[in-house]
Amino acid sequence: MQFGIVELLIGNMQFSLRIAPYVIIVATLFRSILLLTGYKRAFNTWTRNTVLSLLSIVLAPGIFINTGIRYVVCSVLGIHLDGFGVGTTYAEVNVFIHVERPPRVAALLVALFLSSLASVFVGFLLLFVPMSLLMEFPLAFVCWYLAVAVLLNSCIRSGDLTLIGASLKKQGRRGAIELLVVIAVLVLFYTQVVGVYV
Asked: Which of 38-42, 100-104, 120-124, 165-169 is most confident?
């Protein structure tokens, strides 16, 4: 059993590494499309975007898990954090991390990549574990629900882009160089090592 679990973890890590870019792109596109379907100016109902609001409530555990993962990864990489924040803008549940000051662009991009990869890993682990351990239906259903919640929340958010913009503004030309270097390294890693083409 122990050897099986180790094999499951290694296999899931390899699978997550290969599929992470696709999951992030699909989740981001899904969220962006939902955002664009909302009302732009006035409230016609209790929210500007009923579908997005309901999904954010139903999938709230995924938001908390992803934010927790991001907090741990950022802390390990030395990014100065100032706790969590919770908001319900337009009735949409939103959990975020307060950053004391914009970090270096390279450190921020690495943190975003690693935390997204870790979220995808956790999501697929929750998806595969019930089948591997032959869990009973109620517990397996909870794992699958959490897996979907985590994977659909493994997206690029406006706060991420705002923070990248603040870091670029703070660092200027050096930040732009770091941005290009990190993107080039990730592209080379995925195309030459992992063998994934996005």
From this structure: 120-124
Query: In angstroms, how far is CA 187 from the centroid of its own chain?
Result: 19
The pLDDT of residue 38 is above 90:
no
Contacts of 191 (CB under 8 A, 6+ apart): 197
Residues contacting 172, CB < 8 A, separation 6+: none
| 66 pLDDT higher than 90 | yes
Token pair 């030395």 is found at 78
Can you say how many angstroms the Cα of residue 122 is from the centroid of all Cα atoms in its chain? 11
Instruction: For residue 168, give both structure tokens.
Output: 């670029």
* pLDDT at residue 41, rounded to an integer: 57
Q: Six-digit token pair at 153?
A: 């929340």
Could you give the CA distance from residue 49 to residue 56 in angstroms, rounded to a whole number?
A: 11
Contact status, residue 65 vs residue 149, Cβ threshold 8 Å: yes
CB-CB contact of 179 with 109 (8 Å): yes
Contacts of 61 by beta carbon, 8 Å cutoff, 6+ apart = 145, 146, 149, 150
Q: Which of 75-89, 104-118, 141-155 has the lowest mean pLDDT?
A: 75-89
